[in-house]
Amino acid sequence: MSRCACDKSHAEPVFKKYPKAQQFTHYRQMLDQMKDIDGASSPPPIIHHAFAAMEAIQRRQHVYARNP
Do 67 and 46 meet the contact criterion of CB atoms below 8 Å apart? Predict the structure, then answer.
């Protein structure tokens, strides 16, 4: 499992809940380093949905994106 959050201070509770998960601050870094990802979920903020989803799709990943 891995977690990617642009704002680490906002994501701190999730990082604490999953201490063994790899942490990234940018989705491109995560996709570059983790070649065995089965899929990607793109939760809020909405402004990042399209960019993260397109990057994952171009890498042939399954994507689940939703609006809050």
Answer: yes
pTM of the model: 0.47
Neighbours of 43 (CB within 10 A): 14
Burial class (CB in 10 A: 0-12, 13-18, 19+), 31: buried
Which segments of 1-68 does DSSP mark as H helices, in order? 8-17, 27-33, 49-58
Relative to beta strand 22-24, strand 39-42 is: unpaired
- Over 60: is that where the pLDDT of 3 sits? no
Question: Hey, which residues does 23 pair with through a beta bridge?
Answer: 3
Q: Tell me which residue has tokens 């793109």.
A: 42
